Fold this sequence. Notes:
By secondary structure, the protein is mainly α.
Amino acid sequence: MMNNMTICNYIVGLLGAIIGGMIMRASAAFSLEFTDNGPGPGFWPFSLGCAMAVAAVVLLLYTFSNRADLSGQKVTLTTAANKRVYMMMGLVVLFCVLINLLGFYPAAAVLIIAVMRLLDYKAVKGIVLTTVLTLAFIYLVFGLLLHTQMPQSIFLS
């Protein structure tokens, strides 16, 4: 039943529209206005939520207008490529959990290493160098230049 492209598109489109709307609603709690310093903190999340909702509506409209052609297409959710995508989604969820438990920088280090291993990168020096340089760049730009407070571990609160 679920292997029909029409059904899958309707489910993905509906979920995308709902999640995009939830992102827009949550980010609307912050200022969306442009000031001399640039857009308010809610502007970019609201824009991304809007883009997600628009893409979802486009998918729903496309699916509705081409449902006869799409209903004959089967979707295989258990291919090796899809399993890698599912693992990446799991890493993103793990990252969100680890941010609260460990703080941003340790969680980001775990994510970078895990993603590189998931993508079959095996050189330890390259993984360590990429992790260190990425975290250093984030710290320099967001910590020092923009004075952004990154999430801390719940154990340090």
